[in-house]
Model the fold of this input.
Amino acid sequence: MEEQKRSKAKLIASGLIPFSFLIVMLVYIVGPGSTMIDLGVALPELTIEKIDFIESEILVTVRNTGPIPVDVTVADVNDRIQPAAMEPDKHLERFETALVKIPFSWNEGEPYTIGLTTSDGTRFEKGVDAAALALKPNSETVGFLLLIGTYVGVIPILIGLMWIPFIRKISNQKYIFFLALTVGLLLFLGIDAIEEALEVSSESLAGTFNGPLLIATTVLISLFGLYYAGERLTRKSSLTKLANPYSVALMVSIGIGLHNLGEGLAIGAAIGLGQVALSTFLIIGFALHNTTEGIAIAAPIAKEKTFIRKIIGLGLIAGVPAIFGTWIGSFVYSPFTSVIFLSVGAGAIFQVVIVLSKWLREYDRSFSSTPVVTGIAIGMLIMYLTGILV
Amino acid sequence: MLFILVVTAILTTFYFAYPNSSNANTGEKTFLSHNGAVIKTTGDILDPVYLPQTVEFDPDKYLREFNYGRVSKLSDGTTLREFTIIAEDDKIMEISPGVFYNVWTFNGTVPGPTIRATEGDLVRIHFINNGARSHTMHFHGEHPAEMDGVFEIVGAGGGQFTYEWIAGPVGVHPYHCHVMPLEEHIIHGLYGVYIVDPKEGRPQADEMVMVLNGFDTDFDTENNFYAANTIPFYYQHHPIQINTNELIRVYVVNMVEFDPINNLHLHGNLYQYYPTGTSMVPSTFTDMITLSQTERGIMEFSYSYPGKYLFHAHKVEFSEKGWTGLFLAKNTEK
Done:
């Protein structure tokens, strides 16, 4: 017993000793009295994350994304100095954000550039293509966005689910084709989400966040996390060698739901930024696009005894997040959360792709039969073609 | 274990997404800004307003400060005016509220001291360069070639040179450092005003100097701030006090770099304008002059009615970046 305790202590100590050396080294390099890293000039960096136009005022969300704390000293609109207020205060620690309020009678539809100058005189700016009144969360706008979210997310998916009777009646070969089609659709959606996340990060996320690596990390963590959770879930409940079709369909729904949350964010943000024409295209495009997502949920459960309530439930899990997305995107948009949502969604989708692929291998060991290959290819093509509309 | 990781990840996400949500603030304050906008906020105000007690360079003092030098008479009756000018280039000055910039200075200020002599005086300038770079003094006006401050480079860390010439011609002239790269030396602040008075003098007036200048604080060859006498918006908040029916004489020198022109518009009045101040006869009666680099002249006017009168660049970009001010004309009691 004593022996065991001592060896455990030894183990812990041997694990901690390298850490203590690391600390000693860090103290030596950056500790008091050290002049070792007193090289070069640390430059301030501000990132303007969001610009909202409200009645006679412009609201600017700014984040200190540089290596040093900064003081914001001057705000300008179109490179002309304007008096402004900054809340909670003008001092920004690293990563801290603040709200700059600039009283300004802006004109609808005109482009504006907002600039902020730090105490060393460096100016940082961000442009808006066309000013439009920011949406306020009241019953009218909340209802309007609810409607759009429903059009984009819920209804198309429910329409897609109406293919279940059709898929049920077709032969096994053709059923495999539909499962493979689902894999193709999902692969496309996953790539699409990553691309979207990369776009948001390059446009609005500061360099310090390391956008692409943040996305890669989040995608892989969500992929492995969900895979781990999914395996546990199916191992407990599975009656057959195959994964329970309902749990697969549920995972597909959750994955697509996360994806639709991201789509909702894009639509909501576009409406919030006043890009109304763009929103119309987004809405039509997403509606067509999302019908195919219904098929993706339908395929795994088509051969099972199905209850209409369960099917609708799955459809709602996949579709309703689009509504939340439009709300978040319009009212409390932040590029960081947007990137995280999109990346988690991509990871969830890839997780479903893995599960479905394992399933397909039960039917087709070589993974190279005609229905599998054509299914995946056609699935991606359908997505690409309907995606052009967006 | 997994649970802890997930919670940590979520909390970290929220920390980055909404890091300042924990800062509770109460009490809303109301501010009146430099352009009249009323701002209500619980936070800080961003407005280039200088309080008199915080100003590092005092535009009010500079406005009416003329340096006539240490005066002595030579045996032939010529007046000798001696000046000592020290150049430095390590000063960090608050050029607008909260904005700090490395200014290069003659006698510690931007612009340098206004040097004033009468036509025919002997001007002697003891120049000491205490900077870390080479500097010179190059005066516009008449002088021998070797007094031009172009080829006679004065070394860093205490180098000395004595400039000497007979003052002339009559007028208002700039002086500045002429070491290469010239633009860098000028935009950091090595310039000032040199006035040569006619022997018979000019009519009695309330005299002032305005150097129109700018600062490119982010080094993108575009000025971030403009001003009359260095501090943006200063005279807007601290109107220049003048009397009605009194002759006002402004020596104005344009030292703005990068922008090809600058201009000066006076409200509620017109002025007699003497380009370069070399003639006793005004060339034009106007409320608007256009000035290119180092172009300068003398403005003369007087107000009949009391009140606040704007003067500013009618290149409005400059005025919205600080080059704007007010005259406050008060009734003279007689």
Observations:
- The beta strands of chain A are 46-54, 57-64, 70-77, 80-82, 84-87, 91-92, 97-103, 112-118, 123-128.
- The two ends of chain A are 68 Å apart (CA to CA).
- Chain A has a mean pLDDT of 82.
- Chain A has eleven helices and nine strands.
